[in-house]
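Archive entry: two folds, one per protein. Generate the first.
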Amino acid sequence: MLETVLALMGQWKDVFAQERTAHRAMRQALSSACVVGRRTIARSIAAREPIEDEGRDWSAEYRLHARSHWAEQDLFTPALRSAVAQCPGPLVPMATDDTQLRKTGRHIPTAYRGRDPMSPPFHVNLLWGLRFLHTSVLVPLHEHDQVAARAIPVWFENVPPVKKPGKRASADERAAYRDAIKTQNLSVAAVTMFHEMRRRVDAVGGQAKPLVFALDGSFTNRTTFRAPLERTILIGRTRKDAKLCWPAPEGGRRVYDEASFTPAEVLADASVAWQTAEIFHGGKVREIEYKELVGVLWRRGGARRPLRLVVVKPIPYRVTKKGRLLFRDPAFLLCTEVEGDVRPYLQVYFDRLHIEVAHREGKDTFGVGQAQVRSAKSVSRQPVLSMATYSLLHVAALEAYGARRAACLGPLPPWQGEQPRASCLDLLRHLRNEVIDKPHLVAFLGLKLSAQSILAAAAT
């Protein structure tokens, strides 16, 4: 797997102005992935074995993010090219969401105090950190193997909110704030990313495939659904009380019909027949029931754009094998594509869950956002380098071993049971062992790691 990782990272030479800068980025990415504990830049340097011709000036490792000229989103080009090639269907499924990186320093640029998404519903907690816009390609591994889709990150952008003026702010400052929040928000950044992602997918050979973005409810709004997007389809969750209607009868001046309805009313309406579809969810193919209305209008969101409303029936589940049958909440979805079969778009939305897996693995296991940097550029760039390394690690595992967990990753504990896919910890442990056992492969980077140096760095 190390050979595949190095081959993918070798494409970073086109991102950086100098080859030595690209080598420094590769060296820092590999050493950060191999350390134990918090993945800081200082610990990644301390884990390396000293080399005679290498200086001990650590400032160059920090200047990589603070001063070097490189476009951080270009680091995902190798992962995007491989992920698009592993989507054999007629579309490229993607998922977009925002995530927050916890911080503790009070002098970190773009850090803010926002709502903690993990807070309980009865008490909202606040979180000090950074906000990033994240997009992943949902590689549909279930089309050939009975394995869940894999989220491969291909975009990770720092999108800080506009700072709210204080109590003593003037009227002009408050007016400027109201104007700024209309143009500097997550939805506007998402629309810009949609256009850029379409261009990037075309550049790696996906011109004939439309992009399908599965969105959370916060991105299902007028900014995204009214944007003119080329060969791009959006499917997002909407509120159960959203006001929808049919187009007005022809011959009059009205655009919207006078009668309106809500998705919750469609769920309870017996005149709308239930349909069935087979969706891979929860480790196997399951049959779900849904209702579909094509050509509805959402005047507050989509304006005159015809949309498709999909109401998914609550899915039953059991906590234990002998436990009582429970039901999840119904899903109310709006899709911008009104032609063709809706089942491929439903599958993309069910696969959207795996972007949350990428969030958890990236932050908790891979240490995205744990580096201690303060420069304005470094705060935005260093997490992108970490997330790009996480993406390339999963792409290399798919190319080297396939969709299922390889035997070379070692046996699983007996209490863990069968695992169809390799975990992030499996891949990190395997990569660490290969870097230690095959130093000749990384010698051109000036990188040498040992078990003793990694343990010594963990104690610092």
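Generate the second and append.
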Amino acid sequence: MPDLSTPAKLERSLGPVDGASIVISNVIGVGIFTTPGIVAQMAPSPLAMLGVWLVGGALAFAGASAYAELATRRPLAGGEYVYLREAFGPLAAFLTGWTSFVAGFSGAIAAGAVGLAEYLGRYIPAAADTRPLLTIPLIFKSVEISPRTIVALAAIFLLSAIHIRGLRPGRLLQNTLAGVKVLALLALIALGFTFGAGSFSHFARTSSAIRPASWLLALVPVMFSYSGWNAASYVAEEVRSPSRNLPRALAFGTAAVVAIYLLLNVLFLYALPSEQMAGVIRVGDAAAEALLGARAASFLTPVILLALASGTSAMILAGPRVYFAMARDGLFLPAAAKVHLRYRTPAVSILAQAGWSSILVLSGTFEDLLTYTGFAVVLFAGIAVLALFVLRRNSRDEASPFRAWGYPVAPATFALASLAIVLNALRERPGPSAAGLLLIGAGVPIYWRLSRRRN
């Protein structure tokens, strides 16, 4: 057990570049190399496809602006947990924190670690080997330990150990991974347009009119690809001069992601006509092969490895700040409310997250959890943006160092779009969505139990 200090106080040492790198790392992952094929199937016109990504980016930026004001009003660790607690009460806050721990962060970390092992297998085949070395029978299912499992667990605990050691090594790792990833993507874009065998005639192709319902459906995977734009808000308590640096971090990080995503989609359309992209899952590989030849897809592997490593590292950094905030309110493990005496990090929260993520890797349930709770990312972000209206109404005498751009139109539009996406998910995928609602609702009796113990 790490040395812990009694006062739960974190150290303010992050700047705007650090916050922006957390945003960029959280958002840009493997999804941008797979989602465009799904979007092209729903919005087959090139201009419509790019329009969906542009609208998704505008919504993400509107959300980031609202979060910037929320974070400057309440510059505390925890992100939307804090905003929902202040605006809608502790139960709503607990449910977003509960979902983050059970699936949101931990499930995504497990998926990222397994993905790292899988792509590392292209260079070291044993790393992706799924043949069981040991099988442990349990009540409901057996747990199989394979070389891929070991590599994934090693990645989780190595990255967690670095972030436990303090913000300085964690920040160095995060900034390096994010910087190299952005440079690699820009190099890929430049290489594709300079030497690629694509054609701008692909953009002139038209198709029949796209129904509004299909356009809205296409917005769902786009918004999921943009999820993570709010990542800097989770570490608000560790940002220097938060009233100045948090808006900069959220704005710069989100704008950089939107620009890179639009450039990559333009590159994919330059490589392939939209009808050839439609329904293709590994559209990044297909576009690279069309541009640069049959062996070009292998160039993407190191870029994807970087994306997975930086994204997993960013979530390992951000997630524990939510549980740390919950523990301070008596709604999580009591030890998680304390800070490491030497490293000034929420070490117990980081270890708890690593432990649960490892269980998800071993049990193989992270894919189901992410399927069930995918819409919850949009749901809680939309509710958090609504919290801005409540906080402004309840704190009219409170001076805010930053005012959300385009208020009230921009945050209201974001909240309405989030509602439409959630309702669409409930209609189109009632089974998984119902399972997700049950999982979120399972937090209610846990909240009441913890609340009674606290009182």
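Annotation attached to the second fold: The first helix runs from residue 16 to 27. The first strand starts at residue 4 and ends at 5.
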